[in-house]
Amino acid sequence: MADTQLMVWIDQDLCTGDGICEEICPDVFLGRDDGLWVVKEEASHFGETIIFDGADGAGHGPEGSRGVARVPDSLIEAVVESAEECPGECIMIEPYSAEIVAARGV
Ligand code: SF4
Questions:
Q1: What is the CATH number of domain 6-103?
Q2: Residues flanking ligand 1, CB < 6 Å
Q3: How far is the CA of 69 from the centre of ligand 1 (A)?
Q4: Is the separation of the CB atoms in 86 and 21 below 8 Å?
Q5: Pocket test for ligand 1, best of 14, 20, 85 (most atoms within 8 A of CB)
Q6: Which residues make Cβ contacts (< 8 Å) with residue 65, sequence separation at least 6?
Q7: Which end of the chain is flanked by fewer CB atoms within 10 Å, N or C?
Q8: Mutate to test the pocket of ligand 1, among 8, 9, 10 (most ligand atoms within 8 A of CB)
């Protein structure tokens, strides 16, 4: 289990769909079929992969502000760079919170 101090989510209402975030940090950002981007937790960091894309079923979680992914400490720099480069200014970074993790329902 990766150490984590931060969490990240995307406001899909503002996402321009250019994919810059995934180019910078493919372990955290993923393009969805509708051309918008979502966040994920990779099994290589957290033991199982969860994609916060709003889809039903195992391995998926809520999108938007409820779909908050933990950021492995090793990827903090890349996630911060992604947020700085994001043209939609829609990558939201927050401190880690066990309450938020529990509220995700996954
Ligand atoms: S960099 Fe921002 S605007 Fe571009 S795809 Fe990622 S979240 Fe969307």
A1: 3.30.70.20
A2: 10, 15-21, 29, 37, 86-88, 90-91
A3: 15
A4: yes
A5: 20
A6: 9, 11, 92
A7: N
A8: 10
Report domain extents, the chain: 6-103
Q: Residue 103 Cα, ligand 1 centroid: separation in angstroms?
A: 24
* Residues 104, 51: Cα–Cα separation, whole Å: 12
| Residue-level pLDDT at 97 | 96
The per-residue pLDDT for range 53-90, each reduced to its tens digit, is 999 999 999 999 999 999 999 999 999 999 999 999 99
